[in-house]
Amino acid sequence: MKDVVLVGLSHKSAPIAVREKVAFSGDALRDALVHLKSHDGVAEAMVISTCNRVEVYVTGQGSYQAARRFFLDRAEEAGPHLYEHCGPDAARHLFRVAASLDSMVLGEQQILGQVKEAYGVASAAQAAGSFFSRLCNRAFATAKRVRTETDIGRGATSMSQVAVELVEKIFGDLKGRSIVLVGAGKMGALSAKALASLGADRILVTNRSPERAVALAEQVGGEARPWAQLPELLVEADVAIVSTGAPHYVITPDLVQVAMKARRNRSLCLIDLAVPRNVDPACSERSDVYAYDVDDLQKVVDATREARAGEAVRAEAIVEAEVMAFAAERESRAALPVLAMLRRQAEEIAKAEAERTLAALGEKLDEKGRRSVEAMARAIVNKLLHGPTARLKEAAGSGDQVLPGAAAALFGLDEPNKEPRPAAEGPGPTGQVVVLSEKR
Amino acid sequence: MSIWILRLAAFLYLGAAAAYVAHFAKPRLVRAASIGQVLVSIAFVVHGTSIGFACSEFRGAEFFTLRGGLVMTAWLAAGGLLALLRFYHLPAVGTFVTPLILLALGPALFGRAGEIGPVPDVVRLPALKLHIGAVSLGIALFTIAFGVAVMYLLQEREVKGKRFGALFSRLPSLESLDRLTQRLVRAGFVVFTVGIVLGSIVAQKAWGSFWTWDAQLIFALAVWVLYGAMVQLRHNGVHGRRYALLTLAGFALVLTLIGIGQVPGLTQHQGTFQARSGGAS
Q1: Do residues B178 and A288 touch, judged by C-beta distance below 8 A?
Q2: Can you tell me the ipTM of this complex?
Q3: Residues of A identified as active-site
C-alpha cells in the first residue's frame, strides 16, 4: 500500500477562510478531478469536499506533487495547513473520516453520505478505478461496522435535537397536537421545524409584533396568532417553544396554573430557548408541566458528546482492524494474477481436449454423454489445481513472492506482473459498490 | 407431574426475563426482545399444560390455595403480556412484567405443598370456577398495570428531573405508559367486577348469603372501590404521576388481599366452604 497519497485540510488544521477558498462542488469538482487525472503519474484520484474538509486522494507516481499543487494553485496560504499521509495512514484517515471519527461533531451521520458522493463523482468522472473502488468500499463497510457495533451515533447533538427527543419521551409523537412558537428567536424557529417532524398538526406562531409573527408563520409553515391570545394558546398547544427578546419571564406560574386547569391537566411541555429566560422555572413545580431551559438542553448535548468520545475508542479499534485487513487483502491480491493465469491456462487446455475428444466420437454420444465428458475434463483440472491453488493463496496471504514466481516459471506462464492491475477489473464502478457491499 | 411441567415453564420465563433484561440493557440487541417474546409464548403454553394436569390431579382443589391462585394469576398475566405486546410495540414492558410473573410462581415452585383436604362439593359449581378465573385475571391485569406504572414513575423521574440517563432513552414515552396503565386498570376493573359478582353468587349458594363481613371480602371490596374510583377519576383529568401512584396503592391493596388469606383464622373465605356450609345446614 505504498501508492495511495492523501493531501488535505480540515476544520482541525485550517480556518474557514482557507477552507472556503479550496472547497468546491458539482461541476467544478468533476473538472478538478479531470484536471488532476491529466497529470503525468496520477493513476486514480478522488476528492472529498465538504464545508469542514477538502481532501485529495491520489495514486500513482508523482501523485504527491499533483495533490499539493491542487491546493497551492487555489490558495497559496493553504500550504502550512495541509496534512499529508500515504499508504496505510492515508487509508486509515479515509476510514476515520467515513466513520465520522474526524468530524466536528463526532459520530454525525452526514459525512458517510458525503464520502459516498465523492466516490460516486470520482468514478463517474472515471478518475477512480479499481483501487479506489476497493478502498472506498472498505471505508463504507468500516463506517457501517462502527455505526452498528458502537453507540457513537446515539444521542442528540444539537439543542433542537434534544428538544425533539424530550418531546418524544413525553408525548410519544405529536399526531393531533399543536406546537406554539412564542417569540421570533432563530433557535425557536429551528426547533419548531425539527419538532414538526414528529407529526404535529399545526404550528401556531405568536409575537409581540404581529408583522413578525406573520413572517415567521410563513417561514415555518404555521399560522400567526395575536400576542394577546397567549393564555389560550397555552391551552390549545401541547408544546410551547419560547424565545422572545424580553428581559423578563413571559410564561409565569400563574399563567400556567390557569392553562393547566383549562387543559384538564393534560401534559404541557415548555421549552425556553431565551437568554435571559422567558419561562419562570417555578412553572415546572406543577406536575404534568415539563419545563426546560437552554442550560438543560446544553447539558444533554454535552453528555452526548462525552458518551460519543468514549465510544470513539472502540470505533478506533474497528478502524485499525479494517486498515490491517485492507492491507492484508491488498498484499494477497499481488499473487492472484499468477493463480488466475494458471487456472485460465488449465481450463483452456481442458476445454480444447474435451472438444477434440467429442469431435472424434462424433454422433456416438448423446447430449448426456457429451456433458459427462466436459464435466470430467473440468473435474480433472480442479483436482489437479486444488493443491497449487491453496498453496498460492497461502503464499499471497503471507506476502511470499517466491512461490508465485516459481509457479509462473514452472507452468510456463507469461510474466504475471505485465498485466496492469486496474484493467483486470471490469468497469461500472457503481455496480461494484453494490456487489462488494453485499458480500460483507 | 404438574409441578415438573410448571418448573419447565418457570425456566422458560426465566430465559424470557433474561432476554428482556439484555434487550433493556443493550437496546442494540433487537433480537433479544423477539427471543423474549417467543420464550414467553412457549412458557405460556407449557404453563397452561401444567395447569391442565394440576386440574386433573387435584380436581381443581389446588386453586383454593394461595399457591394455585398465584399459578393461575401468573399464567393469565403472561397471556395478558402477550396480548399487550401484540398490540403495542413496547418490549420494555416485558422487562418489567416477566420478573413479576416469576415472583408469582415462587411459592408454587419453592414452597411446600400443603395438604389439600377433601374436595368440597361447591367446586362443581361452574360459577365458582368462573369466579376464580375472573378474579385471577383481574389481579393479573392489575399486576401488569403495576409494572407499567413503575415504568411511568421511573421515566417521569428522568424527564421531570432532567436526568436523561440510561433509563430515559430505554423507557417508552410518558404518554404511552400513562395510556397503557389506564387501559389495564379499566380492563382489570371490569373483569374484577365480574369476579366479585360471581363470588357473591357462589357465596349465596355456599353460605346462604351474598355478603359476609369477612376480612378478605372487605379487602376485596376495598380493591374494587379503589380501582373503580381510578376509572372515574380518569374522566376527571387525573393522570400521569398521580394515576401511577394510585395504581401502586391499588396493587399494595391487592397484595394485602392475597396476604390475608394466609393468616390462619382471619378469614373464612378460602378453602373452608365445607365447614361453613356444613355448619349452616
Answers
A1: no
A2: 0.82
A3: 51
